[in-house]
Structure formats: C-alpha cells, structure tokens
Amino acid sequence: MTRATRSITIRIILQVALAMAAFAANSLLCRIALSQTSTDPATFTMIRLLAGALTLSMIVVLRKRTLRNAGSWQGALSLLTYAIAFSFAYVNLPAGTGALLLFGSVQATMIITGLYQGEHLRITQWIGLLTAFGGLIILVAPGIHAPNPYSALLMAVAGIAWGAYSLLGRKQGDPLTATAGNFLKAAPLSLLFLPLTSSMDSQGTILAIISGSISSGVGYAIWYSILPSLKATQAASVQLTVPVIASTAAVFILGEHVTFGLVIASAAILGGIALVILGRNRN
C-alpha cells in the first residue's frame, strides 16, 4: 500500500467514524432534550427538520447543485413520519434501547421488502434473520427492564418509516440533493403538529438545532460523500456500529444501565443482521 493509498484509506475510515457518530448522536440529543429540558417532542421535531433543511440546502448550493424538483413528497412523508415517531418515542425510551429498536426495524423493513420483491436468502441468512427477530422479541418482552410498549411501538414505526425512506432513496441519482429536497418539503409539513406543541426552552432548542444541522445535515453530507468509496456490504455493515455507539455513549453521558437482556438482544439483533448482510455478498 502506497503512502497516498494509505492516506485515502485513513481519511475514509475517519469520515465513516464521524458519520456513524453523528447518526448515533441523534438518539442522545433527542433523549437529553426530552428528558432534561422542557421542550416537547413536536417542537423538537419541527426545529430539527427546519435546521436540517437549511443546512442541507446550503451544502447543496455550495456544491453548485440545484434544488429544483429535488426529493419527493413520498420521501418527505416518510421522513416526517420517522422524525415525529422518533421524537415521541424518546419521551420514555432509553437512548440505547431506542437506537437498537430503530436500527432493527429499519433493517427488518428493508430485508422483508427484499423478500417480498423476490430476493432469495441463503440458509445462513435465514438463520441471521430469525436470530435478529428473536433479539427484538427479547428486547421488548415484558419484564422489569422492558421498554415502555407505547414508546417501543413508536420507535418501530420510526424504523419502518426510515426503512421506506431508504428504499425510496435507492431510486434517486443524487441522494444528498434528494435528502435536502425531502427535508425542505417535510419541514413545513411538520407544522401540522403545532396543536401538539406545549413548551420549549433555549437548551432544548439548541439541542434540536444541533440534531438537525450537525447530526443530520452534516452527518448525511459526510456519509453520502464517502458512500461511492464503499461496497454495498461495507456500507451496510458499518451501520451496525450506530446502536453500539449510541448505547455506549448513553451509559457514560446519560447514566443508562446495561442489562443482561439488552446485551443478549443487542448481540442477537446486530449479529443476525450481520449474517444477512454478509450473506448477500456471497450470492
């Protein structure tokens, strides 16, 4: 490996790490805002989407691309559904558990859609799929440390919506511009939730702006810039780190407890999905 190649590889690894950390930060920022400030989930969502729309639009314009006809209303509705369900779920859901539920639901949606469209799985992939679903069952099963069922359901809805958004994004030639367009369409649509707003404060507003502009806007910009350098399997695999990063950070930042059930569920979900992803590369 030449010095130039090594330099490029290190840069890609650092960018991947930054993007995954940004995505994981969304769970932490939302949980902090809804548990430690007076900002309500509807207000958090509206500010987050507006901040994301402005940041992504500026990035697209600076790259001398056009926002005309960017995105789609289907994409915007999927994005809005994800964002509002995500916020309301985190009112009573630990950051680590929420990130795991979200990621599991996203991947389950995409895998099930692939099966519906005729994709065939190898035996190891079926084992991985069943293991991942078993992990989800362990995660939400009734018990002392079981998550709030209403919040868990909302996070599953958020994951399904984000899975649908990802599937729609496959049809877009320029995913960054499409994402900016979807944010621009979703931001005004979020005003439909004004009747659900109740309060906000400066700290919660700042956290929502950071979530929208940095963790979402800049995070997506970094991710889409390096995506062409990654194989499809690599891109899918590195995303397995997002719930791990979120769960680990939640322990140190929010003081969340790591339970035996959460560890087992995490291993089953992430390990099972890894088997499905890696199996695709062998087909």
List the helices and strands and how they pair.
Blueprint: H1 3-36, H2 41-62, H3 73-89, H4 95-116, H5 123-140, H6 149-169, H7 175-189, H8 202-226, H9 232-238, H10 241-253, H11 260-280
Helix pairs in contact: 1-4, 1-8, 1-10, 2-3, 2-7, 2-8, 3-6, 3-7, 4-5, 4-6, 4-10, 4-11, 5-11, 7-8
Keywords, separated by commas or semicolons:
76% helix; mainly alpha; single chain; 283 residues
Account of the protein in words:
It is a single chain. It contains eleven helices and no strands. The mean pLDDT is 81. The protein is globular and about 45 Å long. It starts with a helix and ends with a helix. With 283 residues, it is mainly α.
What's this model, at a glance?
The chain has 11 helices and no strands. It is an all-alpha fold and 283 residues long.
Quaternary organisation of the protein chains? single chain
Count of discrete alpha- or pi-helical segments spanning 4 or more residues: 11
Strand content: under 5%
Measured on Cα atoms, how large is the radius of gyration? Answer: 18 Å
Q: Tell me, what's the shape? A: globular
Residue-averaged pLDDT: 81
